[in-house]
């Protein structure tokens, strides 16, 4: 399925860097990222740089950072022309007013009362932030802004190449939750000290059906073994796509895709909301395995009991049906879990 976004992203460039510097051909990179081969050819020219090997020989490589810096610079030339235009008299007037101690909002509204308002207060603030228009003033000359706390955080960038496809390449129709077979996956850990053991959690996006497995440790080998066991037990289910975070336990993308015969997509860094259903189910699992408690004594039988309870629990978002009821409509061979006969308090007594 062709990608919907036209421009390459930071994650795309990190993947190009990883594949190109390992010797992949342009057509292989283009096929993986679902773009035209000429796009990759032009991108490699923009990010071309040179390093030296241990023999001090010069080697040509692709730098995602250099290519992203070039793209960011090119984007500064886009957009509508500046409202201030070439009105240098207005620039000097605004600078003098700011230096006299007035706020941008007061200055703009005084000009409005005189019938010559040039632009809005927000535009004035953006011009000052840019640092490209006014030579004598900056944010430090404003009365209150230098002491204000920023409202939001800058979106973090990944520090390493993604292990597989970015979530930006995931088909848009998955968001509708109209078809089964699209999953989200995560690991739930115990107390921070000695957190070797973990619980692998898979959540089906349409029905919120849950699969839980105990892991002896958070390694790629343990995750692949658990997925192989899940594939054997739930051979009647479809695993079309799986969305995961960038944890090291999910870095063996090739083997995980081979075991489940599914396409894996990786979320942006620190964006757990891109696996919202999975995170919500993790909160419910924490009723049985609270934070701060070790998972050392938890068995797969305990995980199965919690799984059966969750899958037999009616949900408001499912119109008070249970996940297993909804999934059985698409997969009649799915076994009905036994009716849960324990409470949260009883299962916690074991740990």
Keywords:
single chain; 351 residues; alpha/beta; Arc Repressor Mutant, subunit A; Nucleotidyltransferase, domain 5; 3 domains; six-stranded mixed sheet; two-stranded antiparallel ribbon; 13 helices; 8 strands; 37% helix; 12% strand
Structure description:
This protein is α/β, with parallel strands linked by helices and 351 residues long. Helices cover 37% and strands 12% of the residues. It has helices spanning 10-20, 26-33, 37-46, 64-75, 88-99, 104-113, 121-130, 220-233, 253-260, 276-285, 300-311, 323-330, 344-348, and strands at residues 48-52, 58-62, 165-166, 182-189, 198-204, 210-215, 241-244, 263-266. The strands form two sheets. The protein has a six-stranded mixed sheet, sandwiched between helices. It has a two-stranded antiparallel sheet with strand order 1-2.
CATH architecture field of the largest domain? 2-Layer Sandwich
The CATH top-level class label of the largest domain: Alpha Beta
Number of domains: 3
Low-confidence stretches: none
Largest β-sheet summary: 6 strands, mixed
Secondary-structure element pattern, one letter each? HHHEEHHHHEEEEHEHEHHHH
Instruction: Please count the beta strands (DSSP E, at least 2 residues each).
Output: 8
Overall helicity: 25-40%
- Class by helix and strand content? alpha/beta
Average pLDDT across residues? Answer: 87
Question: Which secondary structure elements does this structure contain, and how are they paired or packed?
Answer:
Layout: H1 10-20, H2 26-33, H3 37-46, E1 48-52, E2 58-62, H4 64-75, H5 88-99, H6 104-113, H7 121-130, E3 165-166, E4 182-189, E5 198-204, E6 210-215, H8 220-233, E7 241-244, H9 253-260, E8 263-266, H10 276-285, H11 300-311, H12 323-330, H13 344-348
